[in-house]
């Protein structure tokens, strides 16, 4: 297994849970995502992007890091470029840190949908802001290591079929969830959360209790 951490430009709260999740990962930074490196205690092996959101102080602080510079007018975001680079370098598992929040809702949507698309090709991918984390749901059964009382929602990108949820305050058994339904929002973990999905594209977003450090 080759685990990669990609630093993105969204919000990030450093927690002991996140530090444990990224342990042993190789690191890439996408543009302003480099600002999270110090708090996480990591040194990226590559810094890439168009650098339109990197200030001069950050550029000077990490001037020793290898860079790949792209034009502002390009067909991919810096985050997507970093993800492709991770796979080029042999990643079998990717953590996108700083994948939520910030000023760009469109980037958050991209990160969620990009992760679901990669998961459907068989790749392991996970997103986190420290405060929130997201795991794509693949067909079949998926178990989650989430503390009791964690708030979670399942976001569907299309109609979901044969969906079951166990170990939650509001379980479901083999239901169809129409696209746009709020049925799978705001649930809570009770114990050993498990989700089974028969069809459709979805991602589970959770807010485990944080212990920021």
Describe this structure as you would to a colleague.
With 213 residues, this protein is of the alpha/beta class. The protein has two domains: 3-131, Rossmann fold; 137-207, Jelly Rolls. The protein is 20% helix and 35% strand. The protein is built from five helices and 13 strands. The protein has helices spanning 16-22, 37-40, 56-61, 78-88, 105-119, and strands at 3-7, 26-30, 46-49, 67-69, 93-97, 124-128, 133-137, 140-143, 151-156, 160-168, 172-177, 187-197, 202-207. Strands 1, 2, 3, 4, 5, 6, 7, 8, 9, 10, 11, 12 and 13 form a 13-stranded mixed beta sheet that branches. A hairpin with a 3-residue loop joins strand 10 (160-168) and strand 11. The two termini are 28 Å apart.
Task: Tell me the fraction of residues in β-strands, as a range.
Answer: 25-35%
Q: Rg, please?
A: 18 Å
Please state the oligomeric state of the protein chains shown. Answer: single chain
Q: What percentage of residues falls in helices of 4 or more residues? A: 10-25%
The averaged pLDDT comes out at 93
Overall 3D geometry? globular
Total DSSP E strands: 13
The number of helical elements comes to 5
Order of helices and strands: EHEHEHEHEHEEEEEEEE
Query: What is the structural class?
Result: alpha/beta
At the fold tier of CATH, the topology name of the largest domain is Rossmann fold
Taken together, the total number of domains comes to: 2
Query: Biggest sheet, open or closed, and with what strands and sense?
Result: 13 strands, mixed
Residue stretches low in confidence (pLDDT < 50, at least 5 long) are none
N/C terminus separation? 28 Å
For the record, the CATH architecture of the largest domain stands as 3-Layer(aba) Sandwich
